[in-house]
Amino acid sequence: MDEVFKRMLEVMEKEGLSKSEMAGILGISPGSISHLFQGRNKPGLDAVRSFSKHYPTVDLHWLLKGETSSKSDAGSAEKGDDPRGEKKDEPKEVVFVFQDNSFEIYRPKK
Questions:
Q1: In angstroms, rounded to a whole number, what is the distance separating the alpha carbons of residues 100 and 98?
Q2: Less crowded by CB within 10 Å, the N or C end of the chain?
């Protein structure tokens, strides 16, 4: 099973969702969700976008790479913070995805 899908599943299983409910959130067919569970396919960009819209507080860096940003402060619970303690005050990086599925990563200078 794909690592990104495992992290999506971790979030969705906390809500006790069925496979068909998960498919609905990801905007894919029940057959496609079965392929994700079997490891035959990986979630596509549209599925990641749908997941992100449904779960806006989930850090995309964590979702895609399995890591939290270096600005993590586990003791913080202020409004607007990520559930894992990350501040949302400035982006670490911005990923531009083009129609041909190529991408560029922009990292602001500090």
A1: 5
A2: C
What pTM does this model have?
Answer: 0.57
Question: Residue 20 is which amino acid?
Answer: S
**CATH code, 58:** 1.10.260.40
Question: Domain of 27?
Answer: 3-70+80-106
pLDDT (tens digit, 9 = 90+) per residue, 18-55?
Answer: 888 888 988 999 889 889 889 898 888 898 988 888 88
Q: How far apart are the C-alpha atoms of 45 and 19, rounded to whole Å?
A: 19
Contacts of 32 (CB under 8 A, 6+ apart): 23, 41
Asked whether residue 5 carries a pLDDT value surpassing 80, the answer given is yes
